[in-house]
Structures are given as C-alpha cells and as structure tokens.
Amino acid sequence: MNHDELADWSKRAADWVRDYHAGLRDRPVRPDLAPGDIRAALDTPVPEDPAPIETIFDDFTRIVPDGMTHWQHPRFFAYFPANAAPVSMLAEQLANGIAAQAMLWQTAPAANEMEALVVDWMRDALGLPATFTGTIHDSATTATFAAVTTMREKAIGFQGIGEGLSSAPRLRIYASAQTHSSVDKAVRLSGIGQNNLVKVPGRADDPLFSMDPEALDAAIRADLDAGYKPAGVVFAIGGTAIGACDDIAAAIQVAKRHGLPTHVDAAWAGSAMICEEFRTLWAGVEEADSVVFNPHKWLGAQFDISIQFLKDPGPQIQAMGLRPDYLQTPGAEDIVNYNEWTLPLGRRFRALKLWFLLRAEGLSGLRARIRNHVAWAQEARDAIAALPGFTIRTEPILSLFTFQFRDSAATERLLDAVNRDGRIYLTQTMHEGDYVIRVQVGQFDVTREDVMMIPEVLEDLSRRI
Question: Is residue 13 very low, low, confident or very high in pLDDT (cuts 50, 70, 90)?
C-alpha cells in the first residue's frame, strides 16, 4: 500500500467506522462466544505472498466486529468506560499519520510542548493548585508504579537505583482496603513485595467506605515498632469495585505527621472533578504529592491517556530518569524530556487527542455529560430498588452503584443471563462477602433511554430466575 492507496482506504475506513457506530445499538454489547472461536476463524499459515487489501478488509469486517465486546456501545455499563469521542478519534488518526516517537523534546517538539499545555489545562480544570505540574502516561497502572517506585527510593535515600534492595530495610506501603489492583502490582514490581502492602480498613458506617485515619496511624506506628520502614500512602478516589473515596483531608494529615509521601488514585472519578460540586469527594487533594486520573475513562479521550500530576517532579525524575549520551540535547541540557518521568523511553503523541477534545467539546460540554450520567445513574438506582427481590447494596458514588437480586447465587445467575442477552453489559464485584452487580454510567454517547433500559432488562430476566 502506498500513500495514495492509504488516502482512499482511509476514507473507506472512516465510512465503515461511521456505520459501525450508527449500528451499535443493534448489536449485543458482548458477543456470546467461546474461547478459541475467533482464532479458528482467523487461523491460516503465516502469509508468504501479499494479499489484496480488499480481501484483508473484507476478512476484517466479516470476523472482527462480531468478535468484539463493544466498548463504545451506549449500553456498556461494565467496568469503567474507555471512551472515544469522534474528535478524539480524528486526532488519533493524525497522530498515527505523523507517527512520531516523542521520547525527547528534540524528537517531537510540538508533542512535548503540547503535553505541558494540556496537563496545565487539566490541572486548572480539576481545580488543582497551579504549583502542580505533570506528565502523560499510558494508564494509571504505569503512573502508580512510578509513584510507588519514587516512594521506595525516597525511603532509602535513592540507593535502590544503584545498589539494589538487598540491604534495604523492609519497606511498607499503606493503601485503602478499596484500592485498585494496580497498587498491588506496583508494590510487587517495584520490589517492595505484596506482603508489604498494608490494606487499611475503612471507617464504620461511612457511606464513602473511606480509609480510617486512626487505623492508618496505628498501622504505621506498629510497623515502626516492628522495625519496618514506612515508605508512602496511596489513597483511592472512586475505587473500582464500589466507587469508594478516601477522606484525603483527614488521612493525609496522618501521612504528613509521619513524613510519608502520598499518591491519589482518581483514575475514574478524577474526571468528575471538572464539576466543582463533586470536588468535596477529594477535599484535601492539594496536599498530595502525586495524583493520577484517566481522561480516557470519562472525558472522551480515546484510550490510552493517563495524566499524573506532581507537586514536585524532582524525586520521580531522580527515581525513574536516565539520560545516556545518545539521548542528550546539545545546548539544552535543562530541557524537559518526559520519558524521564516514567517507565518507557518510547512515547506516543497522546497529548494531541486531548488538545482536540478540550477545544471541540469545551469544559461546559464535558461537564453537562458528567452531570447527566450522575443524574441518570440515580434514576436507574431508584427504578431497580423498586423491582421485586432487588436490594441496593451500595448507594451511587457519582455514577457507580451496586445491587443484589435475592442472594449471591441468584445474583450470579442473573448477571450471566444479562450478559448472554446482550442488550446491556454489567459486571460483578464482591461486597461484604456477597456477590453483587455493578452499574456504572459513563459511555460518551449514552442517553437517558439507554440507562433506563437497565431496570427494564433486569425486570424481564429476573422473572425467569
């Protein structure tokens, strides 16, 4: 394929994408397939000779769409969304066409400086202090890994990056019991170890299921008495299971009394902070050392893009950065090279889609969407609560809530029926030992009618169980 052919096929692909999105409501959200079904349809020997692009494209349209869970489906209410506003798709096409490797300022000046700009834009949009700066990662998992690795190095005087951890004290990281598994992964891969992640229990009767500051203080003191070295605290804002939000304002004072750095995981809920009325959920966040949120989860920026805000990037650059001779920029030794703030050397031009999105939608348009999602989730909650046999197990935190049908076994059967039915897509979690179903409203093109199909489908299918 040459560039003239690419121009023609790009137009055809754009037409296909338009038709695909127009027809999503007619598709099941999740295909009813068994593992291996798609591989069987695709399985051929490695191609020896070139095939016509028409044949390849026909095979794509015949096999792939019906083999996908449709994350852009308006009735995708599972996990958290991975949104893709049309303007974000356009920007991704342009970034793909430029095909830059934005590892350094000199390899992609516009990408580098646009990253600084959109990070500042989002900082201001979320109401964070102007003293914060930041960088773009692929996902919150990488950002949290960077934050935890920085905690490790600060705790041992930045000796680990040179000497390793064999002679280091036993380090401890503290996190909410509602924390995301990315925190577990970070302590594993940073060398701190899973057994040194202390899950702090929540406060009794707290509707936000927040970490108990007194329990955090007790855990830190117990570890100090045992000869361990506390290294940092990770807070959750919008926990994945039930949307739990830690009381940052109270708990961060405990961390500060013990001289511990802090990281806030607001991967999903952080987007809602463009609406000032929701910022009470992370009151005190301005005192944190690191904050991460994912614009691809609720703002409409195509996956993947995650922003980590840093009060002082110096320690993270010291922990993560490496600048060999071949990555120097002669005459600009103080230039910002964002690869030094995170794990990969290679970096995509992720800032472009957020730049396009914020300008095309505006904060006013994005706020209206999020406010609608929160209101519609509450309406769906009320409708489900009125159905026979249904119990709301956790109340909406922003647009996430959970429910149960009769008991754990019946709830599990209902979820299987829902996802085989295909009209909507929901997922499960465990809460207080019970199997419950999560509802999360946040897909970019969802309407109130889509949301209210949730109680309609539940009422229909629950009669058969």
Answer: very high
